[in-house]
Fold each of these.
Amino acid sequence: MMTLYHNPYSQHVRRVAALLEEVQIPYETKHVALDDGAHMEPDFLAVNPNHQVPTLIDGGVKIHESNAILRYLCNKHELVDWYPADPAARASVDQWLDWCQSRLSGSVVDIVLNRVFMGDEADHAAIARGEAKMVELASILGAALEHSDYLAGDSVTIADLSVASSVSQLQLADAVPDHPAIRSWYERVCRIPGFDRTLPQMLG
Ligand SMILES: N[C@@H](CCC(=O)N[C@@H](CS)C(=O)NCC(=O)O)C(=O)O
């Protein structure tokens, strides 16, 4: 059975767990206590030298980077609805997967880590930087969702799981962008049972 190194408050774990749950691929989780520094211990660094969750172990295959794990699962299990084979459709999914990592993720971390998890050690300049950037990012995301139900068209793909997992992280900080198309898309993704099951208890 696959093993997913996991933490319930990780946006990056959440997108992988959502796909596994929704398509019912059996897996076990190993909790990595980020708040106790377990990710810096030698036994976990041997699993992922980047000291990050998620990491997936599937027999002899070991993968880090959440979106790479999503692609691997779709390729291995032929989940063509979630990750289409047609080059143009696939490029649209890839575009949003990469946008999530390269544009959205850093600002989400700046806002949520510091507003929700860092307490007295919060970096207030990072919060301000993240919030300023989020204005631009929300207008890009919102515009993309104004004319289709999902990011890559009319059906849900791993791009939606990826970006919505980051939006759910913003929800922890009550910072989901106030844009009607984003809000209705996010509600749509939250209605996917596998995604809903991965939301941390404080959002339940
Ligand atoms: N680009 C990575 C980011 C993973 C990541 O940032 N994981 C966080 C939890 S959400 C983590 O493990 N942080 C601990 C650390 O970076 O030391 C991915 O998409 O998987």
Amino acid sequence: MLSGVKCTVSSCKFWQSGNHCDASTIQVNVDGGGREASQSRETNCHTFAPKS
Ligand code: SF4
């Protein structure tokens, strides 16, 4: 569990109740590519995977 990560994406297979992430690492990228975001909404977790 990534104790410092709070996530509300409950449809992710790594998500656990209490808004915890159970992945060992996460990858966060800028929407649309590149390396510069100017607002939080322009970033996303790309470790997300749907529950099967
Ligand atoms: S992998 Fe990303 S989307 Fe999934 S629970 Fe962890 S932080 Fe949230």
